[in-house]
């Protein structure tokens, strides 16, 4: 009789992939009605005092609002980029976001309300969101703040020529970095180039 297939070691490449896959299998996909009902909802931040990096999304998508997990839509590449960039020891499922503060990481958003697409937000919402973010950073005092989306950063912080990477001005006392938007709609970046962009931030965090 054939034996049970061996489970991959947790620290092997297959084991790292299995961690996120196992978590995904435990959680059903939101239904169409659940996604529609999630519009305008907010979700809690993943945050704690003194983090190494506070990642800042633009606003929650409907998948995130329906599940309560940041960057939850299956096509979003945030979690793979976080792992490829060296921030997490394995590829994590969005439902495991509660583990991030233990790694010195957190997640918030510039705008709290959920929408189907980020381009549904108004410039005024992004400007207000940047002001709210500044207060949050002053309160929680992360070492680095990484805004995930250069267009939202340019509008919210009135920096129309801002580029990816480190920014010249701090936010409160935190150093500021702009990363590409990991949405699957962002065709300008592949999983590999997104991972490399996250890796550049990781290198700065380690050395700085």
Number of continuous helical runs: 7
Order of helices and strands: HHEHHEHEHEEH
Tally the structural domains.
Answer: 1
Radius of gyration: 17 Å
CATH domain fold name: Uracil-DNA Glycosylase, subunit E
> Structural class, judged by helices and strands?
alpha/beta
Summarize the structure.
By secondary structure, the protein is of the alpha/beta class. Helices cover 36% and strands 11% of the residues.
Kindly describe this structure:
By secondary structure, the chain is of the alpha/beta class. The protein has a single domain, classed as Uracil-DNA Glycosylase, subunit E, CATH 3.40.470. The protein has helices spanning 13-25, 32-37, 62-67, 78-84, 123-140, 150-156, 191-207; strands spanning 53-57, 105-109, 144-148, 165-166, 175-179. A five-stranded mixed β-sheet has the order 2-1-3-5-4, with helices on both faces. Helix 4 crosses helix 7 (191-207) and helix 5 crosses helix 6 (150-156). The protein is globular, with a radius of gyration of 17 Å. It starts with 12 loop residues before the first helix and ends with a helix. The relative contact order is 0.17.
